[in-house]
Design a protein that fits this description.
single chain, 464 residues, mainly alpha, Growth Hormone, Chain: A, 2 domains, two-stranded parallel ribbon, two-stranded antiparallel ribbon, 19 helices, 4 strands, 2% strand, globular
Length: 464
């Protein structure tokens, strides 16, 4: 974007003069402001992922502390955060242009206090009704919803040349919340972290003590600090305002739906594998202490997303995504080779290594698909609005890109439910997870073809 002679206006919480594509503006003020917003956004998103996934650890401990729920009831408690989080993402996708990034980040982070405190108090009473736990599991989905609004917000702050890297950092380090939770919660529930104010321990049948309430309480101080930091340290962008009707135009964009398919393959796989990996390890290799290894998969996926955004900025998101899906097909095939046959044999470390490769590739693909969206929409808006003023076209492309980033993340988040459910269905019907894994391979093959046809072949409709 060409430079302009806009006067330097006071920049308060609402940025009325925001031109990240203007090199002079970006160097003088834009980079510092955008970077501050990014580094406040990241811990807020990390906590959102932690609260979203915390129920998967809590629910596994309920029978041991006196809650006599059936296996089916426990399964639904584990699945509900994934379902509610994915559904809430659809609505959160459109919140930033309506409320502003600063206000919505602070309020949405503060909303996580409800399930965090609710779990901490409810779990101390064995008489707590099942429907209370259902409500708390659904409220954990607030954390899943936050991802959509967080990514849409950060997309507004950065120029196209660094947008992929910025989104990768926000998402990748935010995704670390899953691994942080799986590492921290097993530790804090073994000690009276909060003393008398944290409540009494639950005594297990073997005489040992646990403080399961700490799985919820541990996040409360961090949520308070992060919400306050967002309120006082982040910004709203005046030009990012848009009505719901304006944003819903993305539902008419063909590439919105194409990118939903690809992001299901990348992020849907990441969050689904994160949710199902511990249980899959336990069912296939029961002799292994899964809690010692479960956090490593989400850790690898999150770090690879954060570290590889620059690759797509340099080589093109479409090209990187194409090779990622080919690699994921090979990695799933490797998992199949190391599974035990009829409950015997198998090789845990080969299985584990192939899953680490899968997690790594999902992280790279998460970054590359999000890098593709702004590039695609810049070309599409230029085609759809050939006579528009360049500034108007850029603003429209930015607005629709942010909405598509959020919307695709909403659809892909259903992987948190469907991948673990696929494992369970496959094991029930065939005795093993192979059927589910073969179906994942087939879906990745479809993603390879879609990426090639629309974005990477010679004379592709929208090369990127």
């Amino acid at each position: 974007m060409a430079t302009t002679d806009h006067p330097k206006r006071p920049q308060g919480y609402v940025l009325t003069d925001w031109r990240p594509e203007d090199p002079e503006f970006w160097k003088a003020r834009g980079h510092a402001i955008a970077t501050r917003n990014l580094w406040i956004s990241i811990p807020n998103l990390l906590l959102a992922f932690s609260v979203w996934m915390v129920w998967s650890v809590v629910v596994a401990r309920l029978p041991a502390i006196g809650f006599s729920y059936s296996t089916g009831e426990l399964f639904w408690l584990a699945a509900l955060p994934g379902l509610s989080g994915a559904t809430l993402r659809i609505f959160y996708s459109f919140m930033i242009p309506i409320f502003g990034g600063r206000r919505w980040t602070a309020l949405s982070t503060a909303s996580l206090l409800l399930p965090a405190l609710g779990i901490g108090f409810a779990i101390q009473n064995p008489e707590t009704p099942y429907m209370v736990f259902v409500a708390l599991a659904l409220m954990c989905g607030f954390g899943g919803g936050n991802f959509a609004s967080s990514m849409a917000n950060i997309a507004y702050f950065f120029p196209k040349k660094t947008k992929g890297h910025a989104l990768a950092l926000n998402a990748g380090l935010g995704n670390l919340g899953v691994s942080v939770m799986q590492f921290v919660v097993p530790l804090v529930i073994t000690a009276s972290v909060f003393g008398a104010i944290g409540g009494q321990a639950q005594t297990l049948s073997d005489g040992s003590e646990l403080w399961i309430q700490n799985a919820g309480f541990i996040w409360v101080p961090f949520l308070l600090v992060s919400a306050v930091a967002a309120w006082f340290g982040m910004n709203d962008i005046a030009d990012a305002k848009a009505s719901l009707a304006d944003q819903l135009t993305i539902l008419k964009r063909k590439h919105n739906w194409v990118m939903c398919i690809l992001y299901i393959g990348t992020f849907g796989s990441f969050i689904g594998y994160s949710a199902g990996f511990p249980l899959l390890m336990k069912t296939q290799f029961p002799e292994v202490n899964v809690l010692s290894y479960a956090f490593l998969g989400p850790l690898v996926g999150a770090l690879s997303r954060a570290a590889t955004g620059w690759v797509s900025d340099k080589f093109g998101g479409g090209r990187v995504t194409f090779w990622v899906f080919l690699g994921m097909i090979i990695a799933v095939w490797g998992v199949l080779q190391f599974l035990p046959n009829n409950g015997s044999g198998g090789d845990f470390w080969g299985f584990f290594a192939c899953f680490m490769a899968l997690f790594f590739l999902t992280g790279v693909g998460n970054a590359s698909t999000f890098q593709m969206i702004p590039t695609i929409m810049k070309q599409e808006i230029a085609r759809l609005m050939p006579n528009a003023d360049p500034a108007v076209g850029q603003k429209t492309a930015d607005r629709e890109s942010a909405a598509i980033i959020a919307f695709t993340s909403a659809i892909a988040a259903y992987g948190a439910f469907f991948i673990p459910k696929s494992y369970g269905t496959s094991i029930t019907l065939t005795g093993g997870p192979e059927m589910a894994l073969y179906s994942f391979m087939a879906f990745y093959a479809l993603c390879v073809l879609v990426t090639w046809f629309f974005y990477t072949r010679r004379n592709a409709p929208v090369p990127c």
